[in-house]
From TrEMBL, chains A, B:
Gene3D superfamilies: 1.10.1660.10. It comes from Saccharomonospora piscinae. Coiled coil: none annotated. PANTHER family: HTH-TYPE TRANSCRIPTIONAL REGULATOR ADHR, REDOX-CYCLING DRUG-SENSING TRANSCRIPTIONAL ACTIVATOR SOXR. It holds the Pfam family MerR_1. This is MerR family transcriptional regulator. Residues 1-70 form the HTH merR-type domain. Keywords: DNA-binding.
Length: 220, 220
């Protein structure tokens, strides 16, 4: 297909397609004469992935380039491709001016990771983000909420297991990466909404009328 | 204590304390002469709650006023107080121009709520938010991720059960409300970080080397 049809099929404006070509996010088409090239389904597929990485994942152009290079390299494992992708996803930063709170949170997170045998990089952006949230809870005097982190980790592990099995079942590497990004970003939003709905439900059941006292969750 | 000490103890600037007094977010102190009043621990406690509702929960001033009125009303159940509070928490809005996707998502969410016997308001902001995310997944062609919503709902229900039992175990209504807001908002951030760390862990285990094929999650 020509550029005009590629644009129509993919829903990406011609100027944007040309920009992706210049930036190396899209492989060149097959040149048919000095001013024209022919594109095929691989271009449509790649454009779809690039849009998902940029629009849903909010990855930078240079990270998208790295992810695509990992996909196109025959000897990069799926785990490593997903690693490059996840590394590029923005994480919520938390500024915690309180050193004591940060030290407390760091120790708590380190031991959580050790106890679970989670061998991730203790200094990665996402671990830093976890430390930041825990430190904020400490600063606010809500270590009670922080003490529930083990239960949250149980839930997160169960969800992650489903997440990874879901993407691993897809055939093409591009599908795996696209689904991982969409599933991670929008999955957070799904979980947040469902948690609130479920909280209202549980609250109605346990606290709706002045009944017997509610037993606290068993300590983890 | 005098205003200056109330400000020091609570960490809230004097001008802000006076603003809260004018807005009715803080009950007046006991007047000792024409220009001075005496404050006590109830003021310190209330200021702490107001800060959490405004800073962490991002509630509007008028919603904070409603939440405080619910707390101060003897015949409002804890469930209703939490309802007013949760109703005021901002939710992520999603604009979905595609009517077909929205109808599809609406039907999916309605049947999810019905199957679980979740009797929440099908038109509430948080349900709308869930519909928006599902519709976005449909528009992006990721109904595979949307099909995992049942598993996410299982996880959300388990977490919500712990959340509500945790706050219900607290003695003062103000503690319940403050902890509910902090736990809901920062709990989302905890979950999101933990999910990413767990994904990397599971991915390393299942996809790190070219091993046997990975079995997909059982269909829900």
């Amino acid at each position: 297909m020509r550029m005009a049809e590629l644009s129509r099929t993919s829903g990406v404006p011609v100027a944007t397609v040309k920009y992706y070509l210049r930036e190396g996010l899209l492989h060149p088409g097959e040149r048919t004469n000095r001013n024209q090239a022919r594109y095929d389904d691989t271009h449509v597929r790649r454009l779809r992935l690039v849009r998902a990485l940029l629009d849903v994942g909010k990855l930078s152009i240079s990270t998208v380039r790295e992810v695509l290079a990992a996909i196109d390299s025959a000897d990069t494992s799926l785990h490593d491709i997903l690693g490059v992708t996840q590394h590029g996803l923005p994480v919520a930063g938390t500024e915690v001016p309180d050193d004591e709170a940060r030290d407390w949170a760091r120790e708590r997170v380190d031991s959580l990771l050790d106890e679970r045998g989670w061998h991730c990089d203790h200094d990665s952006a996402v671990t830093e983000s976890l430390v930041g949230v825990m430190a904020t809870l400490h600063t606010l005097g809500h270590t009670g909420v922080a003490s529930m982190v083990d239960r949250y980790a149980d839930a997160a592990q169960r969800i992650a297991e489903d997440d990874v099995r879901h993407v691993a079942g897809l055939a093409a590497k591009e599908d795996v990466v696209e689904t991982a990004v969409v599933g991670t970003v929008l999955g957070d939003a799904l979980l947040a909404s469902l948690r609130r709905i479920a909280q209202a439900e549980v609250s109605g059941r346990l606290l709706g009328s002045a009944g017997e006292p509610v037993s606290p969750p068993e300590s983890a």
